[in-house]
Structure formats: C-alpha cells, structure tokens
Sequence to fold (147 residues):
Amino acid sequence: MPDTSPPQSDRRPTLAEDVGFLAMKAGARSVAEANRRLAEIGLRVRPFAVLALACTGAPRTQKEIAEYLMLDPSQVVTLLDQLERDHLVRRIPDPSDRRARLVTATAVGQSTFERAHALTEAANDLTLTNLTPSERQTLLELLLKIV
Fold:
C-alpha cells in the first residue's frame, strides 16, 4: 500500500517564528530601555512596577503584589524595603487581617511615580516606534488577552 501521508519537511522552525522567544526578546528590549530612562531618577522596572501598584487603585497587600507581578514574595519584600528606605511607600497593617501589610504610596512616592511613568512612556514610544498607533493598540489588546 502506498504512503499517503504528507511529505515531511526537513525545515526546522527558527527562533524568528517562535512567539514565546519573540515576546521575551521584545520584553527584554522594552525593559532595557525603561531601565535606562528610569536610572535618571534612581529606579528600575521592578521597583517601578511595585510603586505603580501602590499609586494606582486600592492599597494591595504584599502578597497580592507578588501574585500580580508573578514574583516570589521574598523579592517583593526586598523591593518594598528599598522603596520604603527611599520614602516612596509605606507598609501599614491591614485592618481586615493584622498579619498582612497593605502597601501605600507616600506623597513623594506619588510624585516620583508621575515622573517615572512619563519616563516609561517615553521608553515605550521608542520601543514601539515601528508600529502605527493602530498596531500599538492591537498589540496591547493581544497582550492583555495573554496575561
């Protein structure tokens, strides 16, 4: 009986066709540019992300921040220690669970966040310079679906 299966190609996929690799590389480029700009005010992307969570929305616990950022809780403690030392955030007891700590931004933290946000927006503009506004919106929508 003759073989009716489709012919096998010897061609192997390249990294240029691997969505995970390309997403990681795009993320690395974005983070590198944001870190370069945030250095101007003594921040990096991870502490900025924690500060952003402290400045937007309701106060979150350290555990919630770790889960949202997909970081180990010990990493978040280290980041919060740094932000607290710089007087950008404070940890207060959670009234509904005295064992938990809520993270809130200080006034200095709020103003630092505003400046940092502008710097990261500029970094995003540079990273996404080859995309049209419509493509940027589509990319954002697709990333939100993924995460």
